[in-house]
Write a structure and sequence with these properties.
By secondary structure, this protein is mainly alpha-helical. It has 13 helices and no strands. The protein has helices at residues 2-39, 43-62, 72-99, 101-107, 113-122, 125-146, 174-197, 201-226, 231-234, 241-264, 272-288, 295-312, 317-330. The radius of gyration is 20 Å and the shape is globular. 41% of the residues are buried.
Length: 345
């Protein structure tokens, strides 16, 4: 009992760091949306200009060329993962401009549908219906979001605040929701592939540097196709807060925060606990940026989405609990021995 209590006390600072890291990342998303909505700059060009310094930072910090040479069996999938990351950024940026930051952030949790797919292919038939029910809950949550339940203008429920809105939000619609949802699935797929390629945390960070550099190259080719001249990519206001926060908080810091949360707190992205942290941060940002926001409608959508994610990523809880207690009492390193397929996407 004392052992478990001491572990809980040690995890408290890490939980604070995880919450602050996600808060700053979500703050960078709202800053980016506000900047692009007012400036009209290209989201693809902006993200590319952010990926360039981010890839340099990762390469300098991780130095993937040092130490044991990386085999082709790891480098090739990592480069391919960079292409997936580049496509994710393109779709995520388009979804951000089309649906707003609230929907774009919640759509990132659509990657939990990979849990339904894995259950259909490898899981027990007993759990498939639970996961299908979770998938239905997630679809319902996204349907309500697409119909404006999280906005004061279109929500049928009581909205937070009574001051007049500067700009009402249009109903998004499920057709527009496909783009950010696809981006969320690609993001989850990228994380799954990264786990498959490397089980060691230090090697995972080295490979992530290669992934970001690869994504930068892929996105550069996309920019060259989409622009008549590369000069339009450089016309962005690089010293702006939106730019700096996207690089530091949205790309670099959040990777290390999520890595620590997964290694030490066993808190993975697209999990109900991670959604709870994001929910609180989104509420704060919606209020600070005076967005078209319905608190009650948003909370209902998040509760339904949380239920869907919980069922879609559910494991055999009795086995999980038994494994947790055994390894915590022995050496506290059970996360290194969990099978990768048991981690939610």
């Amino acid at each position: 009992m004392l052992r478990l209590q001491s572990i809980g006390e040690r995890s408290t600072p890490l939980q604070v760091i995880n919450t602050l890291g996600n808060f700053f990342r979500i703050w960078s998303v709202y800053s980016l949306y506000s900047y692009l909505a007012s400036s009209g700059d290209s989201i693809v060009g902006f993200i590319f200009s952010c990926l360039v310094p981010s890839s340099i930072i990762f390469l300098v910090l991780q130095k993937p060329w040092k130490g044991r040479p990386l085999p082709n069996s790891q480098v090739v999938p990592t480069v391919i993962n960079g292409g997936i990351l580049a496509l994710y950024f393109v779709l995520w940026g388009k979804g951000l401009l089309a649906c707003g930051p609230l929907v774009a952030l919640l759509a990132e949790y659509a990657g939990a549908v990979l849990g339904v797919l894995s259950a259909a292919l490898y899981g027990k038939k007993v759990n498939i219906w639970k996961k299908i029910g979770g998938l239905a809950g997630m679809l319902l949550a996204y349907y309500l979001l697409s119909n404006g339940w999280a906005t004061r203008t279109n929500s049928p429920l009581y909205s937070f605040g009574s001051e007049p809105l500067e700009k009402a939000t249009q109903i998004t619609g499920m057709k527009e929701m496909v783009v950010p949802i696809t981006a969320g699935i690609l993001s989850a797929l990228r994380r799954v592939l990264a786990r498959r390629v490397s089980l060691k945390n230090q090697l995972k960070r080295r490979l992530h540097a290669v992934t970001v550099a690869s994504a930068t190259c892929f996105l550069f080719s996309i920019c060259n196709v989409g622009y008549n001249s590369t000069d339009s990519i450089v016309k962005l206001q690089l010293p702006s807060w939106a730019y700096l926060s996207t690089v530091l908080f949205g790309m670099v810091l959040i990777f290390y925060v999520d890595s620590v949360a997964e290694e030490k707190l066993h808190l993975v992205f697209s999990s109900p606990k991670h959604l709870m942290v994001s929910t609180g941060c989104i509420i704060v940002m919606e209020i600070l940026y005076k967005m078209d926001f319905s608190l009650l409608g948003f909370l209902i959508c998040c509760v339904i989405l949380r239920f869907g994610i919980l069922e879609a990523t559910s494991l055999d809880r009795s086995k999980k609990k038994k494994s947790l207690e055994t390894h915590e009492l022995s050496n506290g390193s059970f996360h290194n021995q969990l099978p990768i397929k048991a981690l939610p996407s």
